[in-house]
C-alpha cells in the first residue's frame, strides 16, 4: 500500500468516525455514576453566588473543571466543528483537546492541518491539548510529538490508548510492545505536560500506577459508559463487508472498567485525574470530583452543538456549570477542593465491583 493511500485512509477514517457517532447507536451504559450518591446538605451555609468552580490544571486556572474531550480533526469536514468547540472553550474558560493529530503529521495537505490549527487561531488563551496514539510513538519519537505540540501551540499533550479499538479495526495498529517505555521517554523529554488517556475502556489502578511511575502528569480514565469505539469499528467493518472485525467489534462493545470505578482507582495513585467516558451532566462531573477527579470530560454531547455553532456549545457549557454549581451548593461545597471532600456513598453494582477488586 502506498504512503499516499495510507494518508487518505487515515483522513477518511476520521470522517467515518464522526458520521457513525452522530448517526448510529454506539452508546453503552454503566458508567457507575448512577450508584454514586452525594450526601445532601440541608444547611449549606453558602451564598450560591459565591461558589467558586475554578480549578488549577498544570498551573493554569480553568473557570470550571470541564474538558471538551479529544474528539475530532484530521478531515477538512471537521474544521467547522473544532472552530466552534475551541471558540466556546475560549469564551467559557474551560479546556479542550483535539482528536488524534496523526492525520496532519502524515499528510502535508493544508486542509487537514487546518482542522487542528484552527483551534489556536480562535482560542489564543484557552487551555488546549494535543493528541497522538501510543502506538505511533515509536514511529514519531519525541520530535514528532513536539511537532504535534507546535501545530496548535498546545498547553499539554495527550497520548491515547485505544488498543481495543485498533483490534476491532481492519487497518488497526495492534503492536502494543514497548509503549510504556515510549510514554516514559515522552513524559521526560516533551516541552509540555503529558496526559495519558484511554478511549472508552478505562484505566485500572495497576495501569495508573505504572503510568504514575513513568512520570505522566495526568491520567484521563475514559472509562466504559459512553461511546463504544469497538462498536464504531463494528459499523465500519460491516460497511466494508468485513465479517470478522464486525463480529469482534460487536462482541467487545461493552468491555471495560466503569468510569466511576476507574476514576476511584486512578485517583488513589495519581493526584491529577480527568474523569471521562459517559459523563453527561454537571452532576456527573460533581460526582467524579467527589471520587477524586480534577475535572470531568465530555465528548459526544458536544458534537451536535458544535455543528450548530459556538453559541450552542457555550450554552451547553453554561448548563453543565449550572448543574455543577447546584451540586456544590447542596453539598455545602464552596470550592472544587471542598467538593473533592464531599460526603458520598457508592451503592449497587459499582460497590460490588469495587469490593471484588
Word description of this protein:
The chain is of the alpha/beta class and about 350 residues long. It has one domain (about 5-355): Aldolase class I (TIM Barrel). About 50% of the residues lie in helices and about 15% in strands. The protein has helices spanning about 5-25, 80-90, 100-105, 110-120, 135-150, 165, 180-190, 205-215, 230-240, 245-250, 260-265, 280-290, 300-310, 310-330, 335-340, 350-355; strands at about 35-40, 55, 60, 65-70, 95, 125-135, 155-160, 195-200, 220, 275, 295-300, 345. An 8-stranded parallel barrel has the order 4-5-6-7-8-9-10-11, surrounded by 8 helices. β2 (about 55) and β3 form a beta hairpin. α1 (about 5-25) crosses α9. The model has no long low-confidence stretch (mean pLDDT about 95). Keywords: Cytoplasm, Flavoprotein, FMN, Isomerase, Isoprene biosynthesis, Magnesium, Metal-binding, NADP. Its main location: cytoplasm.
Amino acid at each position: 500500500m502506498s504512503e499516499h493511500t495510507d494518508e487518505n485512509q487515515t483522513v477518511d477514517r476520521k470522517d467515518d468516525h464522526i458520521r457513525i457517532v452522530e448517526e448510529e447507536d454506539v452508546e453503552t451504559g454503566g458508567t457507575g455514576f448512577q450508584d454514586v450518591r452525594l450526601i445532601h446538605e440541608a444547611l449549606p451555609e453558602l451564598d450560591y453566588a459565591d461558589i467558586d468552580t475554578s480549578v488549577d490544571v498544570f498551573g493554569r486556572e480553568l473557570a470550571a473543571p470541564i474538558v471538551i474531550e479529544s474528539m475530532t480533526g484530521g478531515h477538512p469536514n471537521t474544521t467547522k466543528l473544532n472552530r466552534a468547540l475551541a471558540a466556546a472553550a475560549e469564551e467559557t474558560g474551560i479546556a479542550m483537546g483535539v482528536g488524534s493529530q496523526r492525520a496532519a503529521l502524515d499528510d502535508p495537505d493544508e486542509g487537514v492541518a487546518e482542522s487542528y490549527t484552527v483551534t489556536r487561531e480562535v482560542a489564543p488563551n484557552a487551555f488546549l491539548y494535543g493528541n497522538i496514539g501510543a502506538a505511533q510513538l515509536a514511529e514519531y519519537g519525541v520530535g514528532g510529538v513536539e511537532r504535534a505540540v507546535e501545530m496548535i501551540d498546545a498547553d499539554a499533550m495527550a497520548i491515547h490508548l485505544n488498543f481495543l479499538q485498533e483490534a476491532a479495526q481492519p487497518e488497526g495498529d495492534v503492536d502494543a510492545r514497548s509503549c510504556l517505555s515510549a510514554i516514559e521517554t515522552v513524559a521526560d523529554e516533551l516541552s509540555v505536560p503529558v496526559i495519558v488517556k484511554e478511549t472508552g475502556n478505562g484505566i485500572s489502578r495497576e495501569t495508573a500506577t505504572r503510568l504514575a511511575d513513568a512520570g505522566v502528569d495526568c491520567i484521563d480514565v475514559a472509562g466504559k459508559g459512553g461511546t463504544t469505539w469497538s462498536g464504531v469499528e463494528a459499523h465500519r467493518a460491516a460497511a466494508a463487508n468485513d465479517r470478522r472485525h464486525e463480529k469482534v467489534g460487536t462482541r467487545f462493545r461493552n468491555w471495560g472498567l466503569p468510569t466511576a470505578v476507574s476514576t476511584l482507582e486512578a485517583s488513589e495513585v495519581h493526584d491529577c485525574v480527568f474523569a471521562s467516558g459517559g459523563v453527561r451532566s454537571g452532576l456527573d462531573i460533581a460526582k467524579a470530583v467527589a471520587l477524586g477527579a480534577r475535572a470531568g470530560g465530555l465528548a459526544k454531547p458536544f458534537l451536535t452543538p458544535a455543528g450548530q455553532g459556538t453559541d450552542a456549545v457555550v450554552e451547553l457549557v453554561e448548563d453543565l456549570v449550572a448543574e455543577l454549581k447546584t451540586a456544590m451548593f447542596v453539598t455545602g461545597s464552596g470550592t472544587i477542593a471542598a467538593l473533592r471532600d464531599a460526603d458520598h456513598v457508592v451503592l449497587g453494582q459499582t460497590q460490588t465491583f469495587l469490593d471484588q477488586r
